[in-house]
Amino acid sequence: MEHFLTLISQSFITLIAFFLGKWQDRYKYKIEAYKERYLHLYCPFIAIYVSYIRINEKPKPNNLEFRNKILELIKNNILYLDTNSLAYFQFFFTMIRFKKYDSNKIFLNLIKSMLQECKHIEKNLKYPMKAQLLLSRQNLLDE
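The structure corresponding to this sequence follows.
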């Protein structure tokens, strides 16, 4: 009986170690993916954003240099874009062709969506919450 309990406990410990290892691998992969997205898309996005937007001022989509830099960054790093921002990005280009909707409003929604995703990534990586600060300063949180 004692041998049987030892065998079961060893098997149980091995099983737990296996699943903890799998969980840890998944967690490491998730963190690495967040780091890559942050490094290639969201960090340059924040750098462009803060170089064009003043404190307590909303982004101005009609500033073509700002808009073009943001759109170029997204196009070159679309792999790292979240689905919500991708929807705004696609909608922006569709509407700009037809001039049916206010493309400026869609662009602002794209900016807000990217800042929200950046905030989520910064929180998961335990980085300073720059996106949260920008969202609150530009009053983009509750629009």
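The first helix runs from residue 2 to 52.
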